[in-house]
């Protein structure tokens, strides 16, 4: 269980996060939604210890996050941020191998390679595994990075807009794979999503953020409501029930 | 995606593994060294070997330190056109030399204890680096760039300082200073060599222990941190290593910077791996090969009619043009 209590973050006079308290489930898929600038990425930066909160505390399985050794923490939670620019010529397989770094420390064992192959296979990248990253399309790169994070094999996985650059087919495939990972490997996966319909269809829980605060959190049925979403995004929209899913129409 | 799609292969020497490439390069280096030591011996063998090996060691040390420093700096900055020179190291070195000549005079400067001189230069460079790190590094990539920008400004400041000192010197002092500042690959002081081997050992151990972490640094700060790397500690370690290596090579032969860029780029192309355990030795050996063969050409084919640094710049320039043209076509 990851618990954030009263997290505040401010740069000078600008409050980025205000009193964010949240507990993330032990297993299942949680989506964080919200307009640009709501503080979603800052929250991930705090969980990655790239950013120290101005006040408040993060606890992982009961222990404060600061008390963890870096490497031990890297076996508990992994985070994939946006914009992963790499200059070096690294192949997909080698990139995924980096996901095992907290375990092998530079010397991958046969067991590590097995996990790496599995992660590559899981993301349908077996054909591309010897390609260099600069020979891949944006979507393929994105999948390679997700494979790396899966290879890290942590209980908690945070993905910042994993569907960026992906076409419909691969977006759906990724969300299905993340769901499967939640169920089969009993992981807790937290994704920051901009497409709220993906959030609605695949999440166990949706957390919405606005102006650095948690606006709502609950099941997709609870959060996918006209008034809640209109309030969140400040725009007209309507939520429709199609079969058993709630979908938001906001294109018009 | 059909089965028939062939996987693209690396452009050069497709069948050679990085290990073999390294071995091949090592053979070339050994060959170049043998050639350099034994070609056209006029005096007694023992004398020639003794005379030439002193210079050879300098070449090898500089080849190692400049290449490694440049490679580390590029890994740190995630930028393949930068060299440590951008942080104003060379300018600081020049400033230190000029102030020394000014305050100690010609005789004082030339009789300075080499241990003390090297120790002081290195200490100053490391101190400058630490101060920049403390004051400007905020634990993220942007501040790293900010720190480098500050380094450029400091470089200009140091150069202006040196220019001021130059004006205060008398002609003899100026001549001595000029001599100290030109990159000359002459035989060096044995004491400096001892220090160099110490530095070499320390660096080698540090690199051996951290090469895998250096690879992770290539992924950028976010991923590296998520993979359990202490990013700030790595930044500090790399900066310190770079400061030590640069001060070593400048103390040995004076400022050389273009050379590192050339060698490291060749290493990226030819080493066949992004991994530092191959890249570092490859770049180091390539640096040695370039210097030793350059010196060989200089001594035996041109009869000392030109400087080694000029040869390197010449071939380096040609190579760089070729690189750019090829990249433009691709």
Question: Mind explaining what this structure looks like?
Answer:
The complex is a heterodimer of chains A (252) and B (330). Chain A is of the alpha/beta class. Chain A has one domain: Rossmann fold. Chain A is 35% helix and 28% strand. Chain A has helices spanning 40-47, 70-76, 92-98, 101-104, 110-122, 138-151, 168-184, 196-202, 220-223, 226-233, and strands spanning 2-11, 14-24, 28-33, 55-60, 63-64, 77-80, 156-160, 188-192, 205-210, 213-218, 238-242, 245-249. Chain A has a six-stranded mixed sheet with strand order 6-7-8-3-9-10, with helices on both faces. Chain A has a four-stranded antiparallel sheet with strand order 2-1-4-5, covered by helices on one side. In chain A, helix 3 packs parallel to helix 6 and helix 5 (110-122) packs across helix 6 (138-151). The radius of gyration of chain A is 18 Å and the shape is globular. Chain A starts with a strand and ends with a strand. With 330 residues, chain B is mostly helical. Chain B has one domain (18-329): ABC transporter involved in vitamin B12 uptake, BtuC (Orthogonal Bundle). Chain B contains twelve helices and no strands. Chain B has helices at 18-38, 45-77, 89-110, 114-136, 141-168, 171-181, 190-217, 221-226, 231-253, 258-270, 276-301, 308-329. In chain B, helix 2 (45-77) packs across helix 11 (276-301) and helix 3 runs parallel beside helix 5. Chain B is globular. The model of chain B is unreliable at 1-10 (pLDDT under 50). Classes of the chains: A alpha/beta (252), B mainly alpha (330). Chain A binds chain B through residues 48-50, 70-75, 78-81, 84-90, 94-95, 98-99, 101-102, 105-107, 127, 130-132, 135, 145, 148-149, 152, and chain B through 1, 5, 7-8, 78-80, 139-140, 211-213, 215-216, 218-223, 225-230, 268, 274. Chain A: This is ABC transporter domain-containing protein. Chain A: GO terms for molecular function: ATP binding; ATP hydrolysis activity. Chain A: Keywords: ATP-binding, Cell membrane, Ion transport, Iron, Iron transport, Membrane, Nucleotide-binding, Transport. Chain A: It is a peripheral membrane protein. Chain A: Residues 2-236 form the ABC transporter domain. Chain B: InterPro entries: ABC_BtuC-like, ABC_transptr_permease_BtuC.
């Amino acid at each position: 269980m990851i618990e954030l209590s009263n997290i505040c973050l401010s740069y000078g006079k600008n409050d980025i996060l205000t009193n964010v308290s949240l507990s993330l489930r032990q297993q299942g898929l949680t989506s964080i939604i919200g307009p640009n600038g709501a503080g979603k990425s800052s929250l991930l930066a705090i969980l990655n210890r790239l950013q120290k909160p101005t006040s408040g505390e993060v606890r992982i399985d009961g222990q404060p996050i600061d008390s963890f050794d870096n490497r031990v923490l890297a076996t508990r939670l992994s985070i994939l941020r946006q914009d992963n620019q790499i200059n070096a010529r690294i192949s997909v397989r080698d990139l995924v191998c980096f996901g095992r770094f907290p375990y092998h420390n530079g010397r991958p064992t046969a067991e590590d390679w097995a996990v790496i192959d599995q992660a590559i296979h899981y993301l349908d990248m077996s054909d591309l595994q010897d390609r260099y990253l600069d020979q891949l399309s944006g979507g393929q790169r994105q999948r390679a990075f997700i494979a790396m994070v899966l290879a890290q094999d942590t209980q908690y996985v945070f993905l910042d807009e994993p569907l960026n650059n992906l076409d419909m087919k691969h977006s759906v495939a990724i969300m299905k794979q993340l769901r499967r990972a939640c169920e089969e490997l009993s992981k807790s996966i937290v994704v920051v999503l901009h497409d709220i319909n993906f959030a609605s269809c695949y999440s166990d829980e949706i957390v919405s953020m606005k102006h650095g605060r948690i606006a709502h959190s609950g099941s997709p049925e609870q959060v996918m409501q006209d008034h809640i979403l209109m309030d969140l995004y400040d725009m007209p929209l309507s939520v429709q029930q199609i079969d058993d899913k709630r979908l938001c129409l906001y294109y018009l | 995606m059909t089965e028939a799609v062939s996987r693209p292969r690396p452009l050069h020497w497709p069948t050679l593994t990085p290990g073999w490439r390294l071995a091949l390069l090592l053979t070339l280096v050994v060959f170049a060294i043998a050639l350099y030591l034994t070609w056209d011996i006029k005096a007694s063998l023992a004398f020639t070997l003794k005379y030439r090996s002193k210079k050879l060691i300098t070449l090898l040390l500089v080849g190692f330190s400049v290449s490694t420093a440049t490679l580390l700096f590029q890994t740190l900055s995630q930028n393949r056109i930068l060299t440590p020179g951008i942080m104003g190291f060379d300018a600081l070195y020049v400033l230190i030399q000029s102030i020394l000549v000014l305050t100690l005079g010609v005789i004082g400067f030339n009789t300075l204890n080499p241990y003390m001189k090297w120790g002081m230069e290195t200490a100053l460079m490391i101190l400058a680096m630490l101060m920049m790190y403390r004051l400007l590094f905020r634990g993220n990539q942007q501040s790293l760039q900010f720190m480098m920008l500050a380094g450029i400004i400091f470089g200009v400041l140091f150069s202006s300082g040196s220019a001021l000192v130059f004006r205060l010197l008398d002609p003899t002092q100026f001549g001595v200073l000029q001599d100290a500042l030109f990159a000359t690959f002459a035989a060096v002081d044995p004491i400096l060599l001892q220090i160099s081997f110490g530095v070499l050992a320390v660096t080698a151990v540090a690199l051996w222990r951290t090469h895998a972490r250096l690879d992770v640094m290539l992924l950028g700060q976010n991923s590296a941190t998520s993979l359990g790397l202490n990013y700030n500690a790595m930044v500090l370690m790399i900066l310190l290593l770079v400061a030590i290596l640069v001060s070593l090579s400048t103390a040995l032969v004076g400022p050389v910077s273009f050379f590192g860029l050339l060698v490291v780029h060749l290493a990226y192309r030819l080493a066949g791996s992004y991994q530092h355990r191959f890249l570092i030795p490859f770049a180091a050996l390539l640096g040695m090969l370039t210097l030793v063969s350059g010196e060989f050409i200089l001594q035996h084919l041109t009869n000392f009619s030109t400087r080694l640094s000029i040869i390197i710049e010449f071939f380096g320039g040609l190579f760089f043009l070729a690189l750019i043209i090829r990249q433009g076509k691709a």
